[in-house]
Prior knowledge:
Elements lengths: L4 H9 L13 H9 L15 E7 L2 E7 L7 E7 L13 H11 L2 E5 L11 H15 L6 E10 L1 H15 L6 E5 L10 H6 L7 H12 L23 E8 L3 H13 L4 E10 L10 H17 L1
Parallel strand pairs: 3-4, 3-5, 5-6, 6-7, 7-8
Antiparallel strand pairs: 1-2, 2-4
Amino acid sequence: xRLHPQAEAYLERYPxxxxxxxxxxxxxxxxxMRAHDGLADQRGPRVDLPFVRDVQAEGVxxxxxxxxxxxxxxxxxxxxxxxxxxxxxxxxxxxxxxDLAVRTGAVVVSVDYRLAPEHPFPAAAEDAWTVVRDIFAxxxxxxxxxxxxxxxxxxxxxxxxxxxxxxxxxxLTLAHQVLVYPITDLAMDTPSYRAYGKxxxxxxxxxxWFARQYAAGADPADPRLSPLRLPRLAGLAPATVxxxxxxxxxxxxxxxARRLAEAGVPAVVRRFDGMxxxxxxxxxxFDDALEARQYIATRLRASL
Length: 304
């Protein structure tokens, strides 16, 4: 396995998600980094849709997208953005959510969950679950036909995985969960952490900094932080897990899919061998981003 030339070019141009020593980052730096998206032009075109609306789900802000101009009910895809629980927003991921609505034909609900460190664990997980619960409670409001799937990347994949088992435990049936290079275990002790912990876009030190901002002293083995530690995975929604070959999070995502399969949950893993963390959100830099998005849409269409 070797780095794709597009990944090599990306790493040369953007050597790190955090361009300074994480220990030196204070709230002012975080605010500045949130305000400026240096990758905005690489996130893909902002497709015009007939229906885009900002809503509140029991106080949690979200944005609803619909590519179908009709008013009939449709499946719903709930999207949780990445960003280490510290960065990211509905606005920053607007192009991706629009693309997801077009490719799936579903109503897409993009969740603007609270961010750390201002709102540490379990704030983001609570917001994610609140939105999922509200979609089931008010299907007419979301024009839902009752078929609901979850999608999340990186920290958003963590939130999707957590919300999926909360839905199971609440007796709510999800059609599918798509986890894109998800964070599933804060132990951070896998071979991929050791192999790709420095110089591959998401450094191990950066991931540890993100975890500190969000976990804020909570037990890292709590399944709401580390869904890989969930004692019982049987009965969870069928899963599609995407990983990147040169990503510290690769092994824990694949381990989670393996544990799902061992528990009898239909789970498919697709690894993009030459890719690095975050590639699926950057179609302006990675051809594999479009392939990954189409693969996700195909899996969702089949389940919804």
